[in-house]
Amino acid sequence: MKKILLSLVLVSVFIVADAQTDKGDWLVGGYFRLNTSKNNTQIALSPDAALFVIKNLAIGGNLTLAYSKGGDANSTLFSIGPYVRYYFTNANIRPILQGTVNFASQKLKISGLPSTTNNGTSYFLGGGAAIFISDQVSIDGVMGYEHSKFGGFSGGGGFALNVGFQVYLLRNQMDKLRGK
User: Fold this and answer.
1) Per mean pLDDT, which range of 14-23, 32-41, 49-58 is the poorest?
2) How far lies 136's CA from each of 15, 21, 38, 133, in Å?
3) Which has more confidence, 108 or 130?
4) How far apart are CA 13 and CA 17, in angstroms?
5) How far apart are CA 127 and CA 104, in angstroms?
6) Tell me: the pLDDT tens digits for 98-110?
7) Pair 44, 160: CB distance under 8 Å
8) Which of helix, strand or coil describes residue 152?
9) pLDDT tops 70 at residue 14
10) 1 contacts: CB under 8 Å, gap ≥ 6
11) Calpha distance 46→65 (Å, rounded)
12) 83: which DSSP letter?
């Protein structure tokens, strides 16, 4: 009985889902990010939106609002930039690759010193899975490498784990919204 139940679960997970990643469809969502390294914790919110330019390839933009604390220093960050994502299958669990390049402004405050503002860039490259919980909503987990470099400072990077969700708006839904 356990083998039959396990087989049914596996089959239901990998059954092909309705197409949500066709050319002309939209992707809207975002991530909550927790990034930790030695003596540093970052919490960030990153909303994004993208258009599927071909089947399974979405290109769009994202922005990030983040707060970081490490030792006697804390910082706030605002960044914006392009976003790309590729889906490898059309199953209910879809492996994905994702990348971003952002242009950022960071305000840094160190105890006892005046605050400073620095501009720079960051990039993220990672992979994970989009787990479809309905025809048009997925919960996503993506992990990878994130690197940042700000003017006057050496760059640095490390492991980042992003957990979020996406809503898939089909082309015909977007046409209705636009009055077509």
Assistant:
1) 14-23
2) 15, 10, 38, 8
3) 130
4) 9
5) 23
6) 999 999 999 989 9
7) no
8) coil
9) no
10) none
11) 6
12) E
Which residues make Cβ contacts (< 8 Å) with residue 2, sequence separation at least 6?
none
pTM (predicted TM-score): 0.77
* Residue reference for tokens 């994004």: 48
> For residue 13, how many other CB atoms are within 10 A of its CB?
12
Q: Centre a 10 Å sphere on the Cβ of residue 25 and count the other Cβ atoms it contains.
A: 21
Q: Are 66 and 77 in contact (CB under 8 A)?
A: yes
Q: How far is CA 179 from CA 21, 27, 49, 136, in A?
A: 22, 19, 20, 21
3-state secondary structure (DSSP) of residue 179: coil
- Contact (Cβ atoms closer than 8 angstroms) between residue 56 and residue 19: no
Proportion of the chain above pLDDT 90, given as a percent: 61
What would the two tokens of residue 81 be?
């930039």
Question: Which residue(s) pair with 138 in the sheet?
Answer: 132, 166
- For residues 110 and 73, the answer to whether their CB atoms sit within 8 Å is yes
Integer Cα distance of 118 and 21 in angstroms: 38
pLDDT (0 to 100) of residue 19: 56
Cβ contact 134:102 at 8 Å: no
